[in-house]
Design goal:
- It is a single chain.
- The chain is mainly α.
- Helix content is 42%, strand content 0%.
- The protein has 7 helices and no strands.
- Helix 4 packs across helix 6.
- It is globular, with a radius of gyration of 17 Å.
Amino acid sequence: MKRFLNMVADIFYPRCCPVCQKILADQRRMICPECEKELRPIGHPRCYKCGKPIETGGDCQKHRHMYEQGRGIFVYDGIMRRSVTRYKYYGCREYGNFYARAMYQYAQKELQEWKPDLIVPVPVHRSKERQRGFNQAAYLAEKLGHYTGISTDVNIVQKVLKTKSQKKLNALQRR
């Protein structure tokens, strides 16, 4: 029954590629083959502190981080910036499925090494969640938890102060 309902949903609401937004010819895929070729997963060499590719210079040389280790999945170039913007600000929730799957696929090794007990998303203020329609970080955390089997708690940390959007601040102001 679930399979039938998914087929009907695919007919009336076909999934789109989270990168180029074109309707996926093969609805079983998460991304179109053309965009899959264009994406630049972050491999080696990369900075083990910030997770960015070494050739971009990382930002560890310029800034001190308050965390021990990070892991980027894709180079945050124009293609990914547009895709993430659509996910965050235009309600493209299904893009989160692709991002979580990519996190699992490309960061499996690190997740096994880190052995996290819990996945905790960065919280958003209630007003921001209402404005966007859902909490993108919580959605990603839950999907990643599903793939990895790691417990997720989206309520353990809450944002109680409504602060300025980080997007509109420069690096110094964000810090």
